[in-house]
Amino acid sequence: MIDIHTHVLPGIDDGSRDLRTSMRMLMMAYKYGTRRVIATPHFRGDRYTATPDQIYRLTEQLNENIQTVGLQDLKVYPGNEILYDSRTSRYLREGRVLGLADTTYALIEFMPYVAEEEVRRAVMDIRMSGFRPVIAHVERYDQLEMDPDILYDLREQGARIQINASSLEGKVKRRILRTMKEGLIDFVASDGHGLEHRPMILGQNRRYIEKKLGTEAARDLYCCNAGEILAESPYR
Ligand SMILES: [Fe+2]
Questions:
Q1: Would the pTM count as exceeding 0.85?
Q2: Domain regions of the chain by residue span
Q3: Broadest EC class (predicted)?
């Protein structure tokens, strides 16, 4: 499986605290079947502002450690989770923030109360600058209400849609399933921040999804769709 949304890099945002925690997060992910991980530290203009160089360096450090502990078939890629604002598309173009695995897919988050119009505008804005927005944990935005019509439109505009694995156990589970059935969700990711709170485990609901949607649809959600991103990465 491929996890496209994680806060596994140490000491850079509100995710992993240190290298030891990062390695334990990775080992846990590995144990539950994840083999590819995109590190997506927060980029929020005023608070989290790690530079691409820092992100590259920490990603490399994790990959070196992975080799040391013998998890040869596990790999970490660089990236960002970008809180959208008016500077986002310029920052993407200038390389001040990173696309997922350094591709033109960009993981974009919004404040929970964001207006639907703002999301639509953001998607257009990012598309115009040559990037493809992946909307992070879409189930969190109250005003979108997991409305199939809205998700359909956003995807038509060129957005891709991610939900958090942990939400498959929450109140929005039914709505998520309905939109999944309609093919409106592209990725299940962990959004893992640590070992306990939202751990970096992807697959615990995969069986359930397979049962509800079929094995092929589950494979797309947990693996194949993300594989298309990695296929474009310079770090293959
Ligand atoms: Fe996140």
A1: yes
A2: 2-231
A3: hydrolase
